Amino acid sequence: MKNARRALNAAMIAACTLLGPAALAKPANAPQPKPTNMIFVLVDDLRYDAMGFLTPGLQTPNIDRLAKDGVYFPNAVVTSSLCSPSRATILTGQTARNHGVVDNNNSSEEGLTFFPKYLQQAGYQTGFFGKWHMGFDTDAPRPGFDKWVSFKGQGAYFPTEQLSPEKIAAGDRQMLNVDGAAVKRTGYITDELTDYAMNWLEKGRDKSKPFFLYLSHKAVHSDPLPPDRFKTQYSDLPIKLPASMANTPENNAGKPMWVRNQRNSWHGADFPYHTNNPMTQQVRDYYRTLSPVDESLGRILAYLKTNHLDKNTMVVFYSDNGFMIGEHGLIDKRNAYEPSVRVPMIVWAPGMVPKGVTNPAVVRNLDLAPTFLDIAHVAKPAQMEGKSFLPVAEGKIDEKAWNPGDFVYEYYWEWSFPQTPTTFAIERDRVKYIQYHGVWDLEELYDLKSDPDEMHNLIEDPKWLDTKITLRKALFDQLGNSKGAHVVPYTRKTSSGLVNRNIDGPHAADFPADWYVQPNLPTKMNDLFADSPAKAKAEAEGKTYHP
Fold first, then answer.
1. Which domains does the chain have, with CATH numbers?
2. Cα–Cα distance list, 364 to 138, 320, 325, 339 (Å)
3. Which of 157, 426, 440, 488 has its CA 20 to 30 A from that of 335?
4. CA–CA separation, 55 vs 75, rounded Å?
5. Judging by DSSP bridges, how do beta strands 313-319 and 346-348 pair with one another?
């Protein structure tokens, strides 16, 4: 009997070998899974908490629906909190030190490959609609997109905005670049971009192919201007500004001088955009300008459902950077504080990702490009530095198993907005270390687990000495570019930049009190040497230290 079984098994193996893999394949008429369509909705300058399900009174029913029926990532962050560098990171899967788009001042795109090009090669149709904001202020179509609708630079909310009365009377309007042709604007920017995107979905694409739609809103970038239908929305909504906005000794304790000086500047709560507009009014306009974005999202979701595409389409809702509304006396972004680096992120894909889940993974803008390629079954190119979060979103692995590594942040000083210095930061296990380049100022260290608002700087706390030393080294090691070099780039300066201060506002901040010392101290040279427990002991004893 055993011999008979052996003979039968041998015959089966031989048959499979002769017939090849096709003998074991599924029948030719077996249904194949449909490729996943993808829609990426990018908002400009949207705070991590500017969504109705997080902020009482804020009306964002469609964004809320995404979160209710998808996966919300509360710890999503950007590796550079500024429009152009962050957008370049999203498109290339590379950090600013490698893609080279370091500020908003016309950084070159030369040599960069944008991930939609790989999607095209995989059979996807791709469309870009909205704000590009890179590459020498041109709105020309970029490689990787079959459909193109964009505008130069920051663009404008309304067709006649930023035009003189004479030009308006002559028929001039703000322009769009539609597939290489100049077209006059006709409506409010969020509505107009959505109209173009919907027209492409409904009529302009080859419906036999999967699609990738990149809808890149101008909203809610400053100065936020809502359409007439939302001009009075939120008039009675109480706006709660952060407690750290107050210029008090308690709030200023442990903060660098540049932070205290910036509060009276273009990007400061005491002189916002060189106006005297109340912050509460600016926040209301910000929320009002978000409402058309939420409407736009509702139109997209309705289209997907009506056309039975909701079961094989992923929608990712994201922002290019965060935004501050007075935290530590600051507005805008650029810095490494939580409201600047954290962004809203929701992934909606019925049947692919779980419903109503809050996932604590620290997803970076760096991880978006590899994820979109992963969804299309395209291997990650060698130059991409991020990591696909798809298995985390699907719930196949948890955030600890995913483990993309430390969150490393970089921002490079811009001459046009000189208030914020070059900033480097690293976060590991919810501890954040921040250092500044080229300024005479404090470092910062925060335990985000116990101090999420970053109010207690631990940089000189002896109990955190080892952590400070470890993170300093890790930050330097990881800031090397792909060639192993540590480079601080800059672009050509053409004016002084926005340097003015409110004549009635606070004047320059003083140095930290403990930096004022007596002459001829034995410890006067100690801080030329690396920090260590031995050095700390010598300092405490008032002795000269030599390693």
1. 37-227+271-384+391-406 (3.40.720.10), 517-546 (no CATH)
2. 27, 11, 22, 15
3. 157
4. 16
5. antiparallel
Sequence-separated (6 or more) residues with CB below 8 Å from residue 348: 66, 69, 70, 71, 314, 315, 316, 317
Query: Which two tokens mark 416?
Result: 């046009």
Q: Which two tokens stand for residue 35?
A: 């490729």
- Among all chains, which residue has been given the structure tokens 């631990």? 458
Q: What is the pLDDT of residues 114-127, one digit of tens each?
A: 999 999 999 999 99
Q: Record the pTM.
A: 0.93
**Residue 32 pLDDT level (bands cut at 50, 70, 90):** low
Cα(239)–Cα(244) distance, integer angstroms:
15
Burial degree of 410 (CB within 10 A; 0-12, 13-18, 19+) = buried
Enter the tokens of residue 451: 């101090």
Q: Which two tokens stand for residue 145?
A: 């997109």
DSSP reduced 3-state for 276: coil
Question: What does each C-alpha distance from 296 to 198, 335, 437 come to in angstroms?
Answer: 9, 30, 41
Q: At 29, is the pLDDT very low, low, confident or very high (cuts 50, 70, 90)?
A: low
* Buried/exposed code over 158-178 (b: 16+ C-beta within 10 A; e: otherwise): ebeeebeeeeeeeeebbbbbb
Candidates 139, 81, 41, 527; CA nearest to 327 is 81
Query: Of 22, 15, 527, 37, nearest to 307 (Cα)?
Result: 37
DSSP string, 281-343: HHHHHHHHHHHHHHHHHHHHHHHHHHTT-TTSEEEEEEESS--EESGGGBEES-SSSHHHHB-
Q: What is the percentage of the chain residues whose pLDDT exceeds 90?
A: 90
Is the pLDDT confidence value at 4 over 70? Answer: no
C-alpha to C-alpha distance for 137 and 83, rounded to whole angstroms: 13
